[in-house]
Amino acid sequence: MVDKGRHSRRNGRAADHAADHAAVELRGVAKEFDLSRRREALRVLDGIDLTIARGEFVALLGPSGCGKSTVLRMIAGLETPTSGSVEVEGGAPSALIAEHRLGVAFQDSALLPWASAWDNIALPFRLAGRSVPEERIRALLETVGLEGFAKARPKQLSGGMRQRISIARSMALDPDVLLLDEPFGALDAVTRRRLNLELGGVWARRRTTTVLVTHDVAEAVLLADRVIVLTGRPGSVAHVEEVPAPRPRGEDFTRSHGFHEVVDRLISLLDDPSGGGKP
Ligand SMILES: Nc1ncnc2c1ncn2[C@@H]1O[C@H](COP(=O)(O)OP(=O)(O)OP(=O)(O)O)[C@@H](O)[C@H]1O
């Protein structure tokens, strides 16, 4: 079992101060991209307010291009907001990254092509200057169903298998905040559902604060405490859906009336041509 109190003990008063803060907080965030070919900047996001509590799992849904990945990239410190603020664990994302407390698995997460699955998953330990705990790497390979592929190089694996390595790698250091951008996108439906259930269990037990971008409404409802529907463009929060079921959730939840009711409501919101059914 993971000890979430370790940062409090390690960082003393700094952690006490951070305890006053949400895990992730976006306030009045807008994002514009300057495109040289256009006279006006492209306003991708506007007026995004989002507070994510410690241990909460939030899924971001919305039409293609509404800015979901941009939100995630700002939380990861890979983009800066044009206006507004983004705080992670009470500070700038860069502070969390420097302490190796942020895990990311993005669609395009590059694996080291010359390194084995094992070494790719072990990479965060090496980057953090820590010794590689063999048992942990073995357990992570097993969690993502790749126990027989420890020595395989990325090019010997399918796209879905590479994604699973990225997921395992993002979890390696047991981060405080986990950012996942369509991590299951290249998987077949059966493997996707199996991993949803299995990793959903792991994340719920560890209470890792998680932000997941997905196009799969059922996946969002199965995994998340809250589903945020963004509408475009510029992207803003159109709807917030609380999923009133304790995590971890099993297959019985996916067969329940409550699950299907929420999935149907979200699908009709996303289907609304007026732009995501603003309440
Ligand atoms: N670095 C960039 N430079 C210019 N435009 C960008 C950049 N990054 C994203 N955009 C634009 O911002 C908009 C939102 O992109 P983003 O990837 O955040 O959307 P998304 O909701 O995640 O889309 P999808 O669901 O298709 O992955 C798009 O119009 C995209 O072209």
Automatic annotation (TrEMBL):
Keywords: ATP-binding, Nucleotide-binding, Transport. The keyword Secreted does not apply. InterPro entries: AAA+_ATPase (IPR003593), ABC_transporter-like_ATP-bd (IPR003439), ABC_transporter-like_CS (IPR017871), ABC_transporter_ATP-bind (IPR050166), P-loop_NTPase (IPR027417). Pfam families: ABC_tran. One of its GO terms (molecular function) is ATP binding. Residues 30-257 form the ABC transporter domain. It comes from the Bacteria. This is ABC transporter ATP-binding protein.
